[in-house]
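Incident log, support desk, overnight shift.

02:14 A customer reports that sequence design results differ from what the structure should imply. Their input is reproduced verbatim below. On-call engineer (initials T.W.) acknowledged and began investigating.
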């Protein structure tokens, strides 16, 4: 394999993982970010994000990695420059492409051919616009390739080295080939597409994954109403090879830096083109409602939540990350506070990140501190540590030994055997759990 000089613009989560993984493949990588603290940290071996395996990878490939604040350093060294800047939502739900356009404005004069490779998630049509902007700036010799990322947080390093597919959308065949060649050692199928289709593959893949989650969450809600068990149902669905087992875990909804933002961006992209994407609108709405269902479950057992103490266990949007972006815990905490509950919260890694987002919530250093004298413990994120939740120590320290398992992490029978009242998502619960009568039955029970 030919050793390439690769540039990375944006040392966020995608940029840093991509840089480390290309260095691991033997390439020289120059990473540029505008945040001097971040560059300083990375240059001195500190990784400002939590991603399993990343720190070791950066350490192992130190001599192939350079970190800089100067965009000129990147364009002087590299032939392939990956754009990994953020594309957050605007108020309208559109993707904010200002960081992408800033990059275009900053491209320096170079005397060799450079290919910009778009890794950031962008609306369909962005490549066409960037191509136009490059041409207008007299940069026709700068190529453009769309190469979306499919990494999931918490498993990103593994995902990079074991991709299901590599998608390459290019205006010029040679540019696409140069990008595809980087991934050859990974032996993954390569989908060569036009730029717009490559952009759509990324958005549609995420939308499909979200659709599966909202679908199984609605099935879970119907299971609750009819006595079926969604975990069994998902097992039975997933064995159909046409459907597959993935993304059928019912819970309190999806969050994160990608799904909420990308679903809005795709819905808005369709709307901007005059199309109402009904299915996606429903997927988003189901997810919003799903985060709030835990409140009704608590009321069912505790009556009014005013003055009750609820422990939220796991705060990051998923396990093995400290990322709190759009985490369901944020909405849940504020709904509980609005009901007058006292909210305590614990997470094995995301406590610092949670502090500014969960105002009015008491963050604790240990799980036991969170559940002490609590009226209920809610599993919000399925950290493996929480598998050990139903212990005697936890049961004895709670005021009411009630566990609401928002991720179906625990085995219902053993939790009940351990002396807890247990409520999950889409699993036969109150009828089988031998619940004590509450003094103040909830609206749901009365109905
Ligand atoms: C997601 C995609 O999985 C990646 O392929 C994609 O590259 C990435 O977005 C992106 O666009 O950058 P990520 O957000 O890191 O990755 O995490 P996921 O594992 O997909 O989980 C997203 C959310 O869905 C989490 O809140 C998780 O708890 C929830 N989820 C996932 C469920 O509720 N049920 C499931 O069955 C699966």
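02:41 Re-run completed on a clean worker. Output:
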């Amino acid at each position: 394999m030919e050793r390439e000089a690769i540039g990375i613009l944006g040392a966020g989560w995608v940029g840093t993982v991509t840089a480390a993984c290309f260095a691991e493949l033997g390439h020289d990588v120059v990473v540029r970010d505008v945040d001097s603290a971040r560059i300083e940290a990375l240059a001195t071996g500190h990784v400002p994000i939590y991603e399993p395996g990343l720190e070791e990878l950066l350490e192992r490939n130190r001599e192939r990695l350079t970190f800089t604040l100067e965009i000129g350093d990147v364009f002087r060294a590299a032939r392939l420059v990956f754009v990994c800047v953020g594309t957050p939502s605007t108020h309208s739900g559109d993707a904010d492409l200002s960081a992408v356009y800033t990059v275009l404005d900053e491209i320096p004069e170079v005397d060799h051919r450079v290919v910009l490779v778009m890794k950031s998630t962008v609306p369909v049509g962005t490549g066409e616009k960037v191509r136009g902007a490059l041409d207008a700036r007299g940069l026709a010799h700068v190529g453009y390739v769309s190469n979306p990322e499919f990494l999931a947080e918490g498993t990103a390093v593994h995902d990079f080295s074991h991709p299901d597919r590599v998608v390459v959308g290019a205006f010029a065949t040679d540019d696409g080939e140069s990008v595809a060649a980087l991934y050859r050692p990974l032996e993954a199928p390569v989908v060569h597409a036009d730029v717009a289709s490559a952009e759509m593959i990324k958005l549609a893949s995420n939308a499909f994954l979200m659709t599966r989650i909202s679908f199984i969450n609605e099935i879970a809600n119907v299971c609750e109403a009819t006595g079926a068990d969604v975990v069994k149902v998902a097992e039975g669905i997933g064995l159909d090879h046409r459907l597959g087992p993935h993304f059928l875990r019912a819970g309190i909804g999806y969050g994160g830096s990608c799904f909420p933002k990308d679903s809005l961006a795709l819905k808005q992209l369709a709307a901007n083109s005059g199309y109402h994407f009904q299915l996606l609108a429903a997927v988003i709405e189901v997810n919003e409602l799903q985060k709030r269902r835990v409140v009704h479950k608590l009321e069912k057992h505790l009556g009014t939540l005013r003055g009750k103490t609820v422990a939220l266990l796991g705060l990051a949007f998923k396990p093995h990350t400290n990322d709190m972006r759009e985490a369901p815990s944020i909405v849940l905490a504020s709904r509980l506070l609005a009901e007058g509950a006292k909210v305590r919260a614990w997470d094995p890694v995301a406590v610092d990140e949670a502090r500014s987002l969960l105002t009015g919530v008491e963050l604790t250093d240990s799980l036991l501190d969170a559940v002490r004298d609590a009226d209920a413990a809610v599993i919000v994120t399925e950290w493996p540590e929480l598998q050990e939740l139903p212990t005697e120590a936890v049961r004895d320290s709670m005021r009411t030994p009630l566990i609401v398992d928002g991720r179906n992490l625990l085995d219902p029978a053993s939790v009940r055997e351990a002396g807890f009242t247990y409520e999950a998502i889409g699993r036969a619960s109150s009828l089988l759990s031998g619940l004590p009568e509450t003094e103040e039955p909830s609206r749901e029970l009365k109905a």
